[in-house]
Amino acid sequence: MSWTNSRNAELKERAAKVIPGGMYGHESTALLPADFPQFFRRADGTRLWDADDNEYIDYMCAYGPNLLGYRHAAVDAAARAQMELGDTLTGPSEIMVTLAEVLVGMLGHAEWAMFCKNGTDATSMATVVARAHTGKRKILVGRGVYHGAAPWCSPGPAGILSDDRAHIAYYRDQDPQSLADAMKEHAGDVAAVFATPFRHETFRDQAQPDATFAREARRLCDAEGAMLVLDEVRTSFRLSRDHAWAALGVAPDLSSCGKVIGNGQPISALVGGEHLRKAAGSVFVTGSFWFSAVPMAAAIATLKIVRESDYLERITRTGTLLREGLARQAADHGFALRQTGPVQMPQILFEDDPEMRLGYFWTAAAVRRGIYLHPYHNMFINAALSEADVAATLEATDGAFAALKAQDLKHLPLERPAVRERLERAAALSA
Q: Is the pTM of this model over 0.90?
């Protein structure tokens, strides 16, 4: 492909004058190789075009929300039809009731649903519902695990007071003994344990869902009278048509659903069991746009496809093809990859790459060849990705491996000095 970044560079320069830091949050490219575009123009299916009109096969899926493909016809048609009637009104549309019925009907542990906009909204709501129900204060979370950007859970320390986290306690993620120790330390005052279905943090290898950890977390919560909260903001409907631990036989008390339920429309949800209905009804949580009808119409259409199509089998198949193809290519070029976690949410890191110099060069080379991969964040497979797209991806990544092999590997640059700090932090959290 012919690749340029002049328009993107111009926009970054303009943004630096009017947006703090030039960009903020998880979609900032400040830690990424310089070739990664910050700004995009359009998307369709599994394709993304940046501000310079470079075309990519996109493996980030808007950091997760794109499950079925950008601009999915049925989802967009439902959203447009509702827009003709109204979106953000003085009160919710009846479509809110329908969506709650649909979601409760799909999730085995859910008896009610409340809707919001972002993953942070849903996880923060879970803390107050758990505290309202139990009358206890402590929230146990995996150290370094991302649950959102509110003061109680933000990974950035700036502007955060120790008081904001006075009742947040930590355990080593996915470690049953560490969780048991934390529960013992705070016995009698634990309102909730937050867990993710598997480890999926940045700069680190992922894991697979662990039945031992899930069952022990459930047992410990039951013994303590604490609520088990499953944070599925990233994983909803990518691992299962039910909640992610359903196949393990472990049901949470609360779960936060996000990212995908509107296939890109701004909507998330908190769902819970019958025993928490009264507490959920007692807390004051709201937002002027939480009741908007257009995202709810999109969610109903998305969940219909989740129930009735083979989307899950397709993303598993294409994710497997990608993983197997990359493993072969890496071996052919003399490199070793660590591809971890479920194939629907690939994490790709290089062996013997402690400062990620190999990974940074390789993903930047892939971007210049029209494949948007990420050097340190888990990626996502969407249902629009075809086997032909995977073949095109592998053609480009083969070229990226060849370009990497041609380099003097001992002198590859560290693209962003701040990356070393993040790597050290991730290593400390794993210890």
A: yes
